[in-house]
Amino acid sequence: MMMISKKKYFKKSLRILGVLIGLELIAVSVAMFFDPHKIAAGGATGIAILVKEVWQVPLSSTLLVVNVLMWILTMIFLDKVAAAKITFGSIILPLFLALTPNLMIIKNPLLSDIIGSIVFGVGLSIIYRSGYSSGGTTVPPMILNKYFRIRNANSLFVIDGIVCLGNIFVSGFENFFLSILSVGISTIVMNYIQTGLDKKLVVYVMSEDHQEAIQQSLEEKLAVGSTVFDVRGGHSNKQKEMLMIVTDTQNYATLLDLIFDLDREAFVLADSVAEVHNGSF
């Protein structure tokens, strides 16, 4: 029991450390890449940049106010569990933003926007994978989804779009387009990190006369295991067997060659999977 509790404590400590790293990456992206060029790239940090440009209010102060308001809305319209997930990030991110130096590392606005978006996406992905949230404008979509069944992604896109539009009135059209670019890059980075670091292919194979030979060949030459399903043809109504193989993407071409060397008419269906845990492949 003592060993289990130590492992749980260690995992929880690593998770909190990951969240802190993610929050600091977001703070760096805002203070060193977005704010020096007045690029309000959506979200609560984008609102903070717009407010700073108009009224000279510090980024951390605006962000803290927005996060506190969002936390109150969470307590009213959602639940304590959701509020607990955003509490840590809502407090720590403004603190990190206040402590992070506001420097212009890159003078080129486009390059700064691209690098800042990548850093922001990596930071947010780390936080999400740890089961936490940075709060801010992620809260209204959760409320709209609960009460009106509006998809989170759709309402978040609209909110980010409104913040990006603010660039037109504060900094001009160039910054507006840079902010749109930033949202796109951050989304791509987040999607890749969330689903792409352990991406594998799952391949289904059916052969009329060479199923066993294909299975044996794949095990011997590619050292991949397989799972056999009993299936029934929708048209023929005949009982058949189907192999399921999980493999790395770089092995896919070799796998196809092995299959088609034995049966040119084999049915092959491949799809990508985000993550694979345990098992043998």
In short:
The protein has 281 residues and is an alpha+beta fold. It is 64% helix and 10% strand. It has helices at 2-34, 43-55, 59-77, 80-99, 109-129, 139-148, 152-170, 173-196, 211-221, 252-262; strands at residues 200-206, 227-232, 239-247, 267-273.
Characterise the protein shown here:
- The chain crosses the membrane at residues 12-34, 54-74, 86-104, 110-132, 153-170, 176-193.
- InterPro entries: DUF2179, N-reg_PII/ATP_PRibTrfase_C, UPF0750_membrane, YitT.
- Keywords: Cell membrane, Membrane, Transmembrane, Transmembrane helix.
- The chain is α+β, with helices and mostly antiparallel strands.
- It folds into 2 domains: 2-196, no CATH class; 200-273, Alpha-Beta Plaits (2-Layer Sandwich), CATH 3.30.70.120.
- It is built from 10 helices and 4 strands; from the N terminus they run ααααααααβαββαβ.
- Strands 2-3-1-4 form a 4-stranded antiparallel sheet, with helices on one face.
- A hairpin with a 6-residue loop joins β2 (227-232) and β3 (239-247).
- The longest helix has 33 residues, at 2-34.
